[in-house]
Each structure stands twice: as C-alpha cells, then as structure tokens.
Write a structure and sequence with these properties.
Layout (H helix, E strand, L loop, with lengths): L1 H41 L1 E5 L14 E5 L13 E4 L9 E7 L4 E5 L2 E4 L2 E2 L14 E5 L4 E5 L9 H4 L2 E2 L3 E10 L5 E2 L4
Antiparallel strand pairs: 1-2, 2-11, 3-4, 3-11, 4-9, 5-6, 5-8, 6-7, 9-10, 11-12
C-alpha cells in the first residue's frame, strides 16, 4: 500500500511539474508576443513599398526600416521620407516626402515646387514627366504637406490635403531589402 501511495505521489509530482513547465512556456511566449507588439506599435516597423509614387528614390517591393519614436517629438523636417495614413477610411500606409511645414505656402508652377515663393531644389524627383500646376496652399498648424518623388504619378497632399500629425506613422530610415539595394535614406 505504501508503495502504491509513493508511486501516485511521484506521478502527481510529475504532472504538477509538467503543468508548471507548460505555464512557464505559455507565459514566456505571451511576454514575447506582447514585447513584439509594443515594439511594432511604438518603436519600429518594416514597411513594404507598393507602387511607383516614390520613384526614382524607392521602388515597388523594397522594404523600409521605419522608426516611430520621432513622431512623438513633433513633425518631420522638410525632405524627410515618412510613412502616413490618409483619411480615406483604409488602413493603408503611404510612403511620401515631407515638403511643406506648418505656415509654409506651397505652390506648383511649370513642374517646379515653390515654398514661400522660392523654388525648391529637388534632386530626388522624377523629372522625366511634367506634373500639374497647383495654386498656393498654406500648410495649417500640426500638419505637413507631402508629395511623392514621382510627382506625375503620386496621390499626395495635392489631392488629399495636408497630413495631420496623428496620421504620421514614422520616419523611413533605410532600405533593408532586397539586400543588394540596402541603403540609408537620410539625406535621400
């Protein structure tokens, strides 16, 4: 009888140990998923470029490393490549370049962008195709005016208006894939 109780005791202890191990793994996996979610939501994300609007700077199927911390510090600087959401009811990411900052007057004449009456020097644009003129628009506070580098083929602030601060997802830092195209986007 004592031998039977001892065997049952060992079996019970093994079950308890197994259950404890399973709960340990469940907790570890849960913490890892929560950390990954927090990193993606607030710190860093990889974004896929889809479409020609940022050519020649970026191309379809390139993947961008996007940091999200700077969006909490305020609006981007002119020339930064940023990821935004439009107020179009979709949850799509759009890759655009910050062109006009709060208080700036943005205008397009003869395929040239003017900021406060001064022609913007833009070595990064697709100059092969002309694009439509746009009358002067003053950028409101807490917004940024964005445009694609392929101005003739980009849905941007010329169509959807200035982008509110809360519509900015993050700042594109680098192309990380394909590997043979890896490069920093600072100063791009």
């Amino acid at each position: 009888m004592a031998e039977n109780e001892s065997r049952e005791s060992r079996v019970t202890k093994k079950r308890q140990e197994k259950t404890k191990n399973i709960w340990g793994w469940v907790l570890a996996i849960g913490i890892a998923v929560a950390v990954a979610f927090l990193v993606r939501a607030f710190l860093f994300e990889i974004i896929l470029v889809d479409g020609p609007s940022m050519q020649p700077t970026l191309h379809t199927d390139e993947r961008l490393a996007v940091e999200k911390v700077s969006r909490y510090a305020g609006l981007p600087e002119r020339g930064d490549i940023i990821i935004v959401h439009y107020s179009d009811g979709t949850n799509n990411n759009y890759v655009k370049r910050a062109i006009g900052l709060p208080g700036d007057t943005v205008e397009v004449r003869d395929s040239t962008v003017y900021i406060n009456g001064e022609a913007l020097s833009e070595d990064y644009t697709n100059k092969a195709e002309p694009y439509a003129d746009m009358g002067p628009v003053t950028v409101p506070e807490d917004t940024v005016f964005v445009m694609g580098d392929n101005r003739a083929n980009s849905m941007d602030s010329r169509m959807v208006g200035p982008i509110r601060h809360d519509q900015i997802v993050g700042h594109a830092m680098a192309v990380i894939f394909p590997f043979n195209e890896m490069r920093s986007l600072d100063g791009a």
